[in-house]
Amino acid sequence: MNQHRIVIFAIITVISGAASANTSSQPATEMVEESGIIKPHKMAEDEQRAVKLLNLAVENVKEKGPDGVNDFSQKAEFTDRELYVFALRVDGRFLASGGSSSVLVGDTVLDTTDVFGKPFFREMIEKAVNDGGGMVEYHWTNPTDSQGEPKRTMFKRVGDIIVAVGYYPSRATSFQARKFLDDAVKAMVTNEGEALKAFNQPDGNFVKNDLYVFVLDMKKGTFIAHGSTPSLIGQSHNEVFSPDGKAVITKMLNQAKEEGKGELTYLWENPTTGKAEAKHTYYRVLDNKLVGVGYYQR
Which of 7, 49, 68, 152 has the smallest count of CB within 10 Å of its CB? Predict the structure, then answer.
């Protein structure tokens, strides 16, 4: 395949989370399949939209047969803002697309790779043949910022056709993290007990994509809330380390005892990508509690 066509190609893909900051790689997002339909469970908004679009596309191919893929590039119902449907055969022939990957229609994409050389189409096909569907993760160029970012595509096999949809996840900004922390502190002041419960609810107002609140009891040095990894609750700061083996929680606690508030950058697992990334956390001390919120840097 011509290199310039690979550069132009961008498939909107799904990034799901892996729950755990440093101790587990189990996905926080699940896809529950029933009667050939993938149902979202605890998914972010963009991920839910992608699942809905994929289900619609799968049903279209089931109803119309192979010719149903033509609708993906012709009908508006198979796009949702930046999301679109694409399809390929199990032999690697790219069939249709409602987005920028339309340049690949007619090509064989078995040897197409991501920015790190991963043959993700080949992996997608193998999973579709063996399991009937699933998801594949890789890095691709996001048309909105021209950076290679981790992505995930969900797909389902219908006969010899693989139908797929995905998206680039939204990432929190520094401003959003600071605002999230302000809201968390206000909630603690209003009703500490209710606030801690809210921080620990995956579907609550204090968990949004890669933004979440964590709280440490500074006297005991233990987690009493963590919106991304509930298993950390009760663990001591000296039992928790970053993916690169550093005692970052201990360092944060020591800084907080001296300054009362501050910020710290360290390596931590992003719940929406499942990857270890640089995280910049803002924290404040309130009644011997360290309240923290961070964002993952691009």
Answer: 7
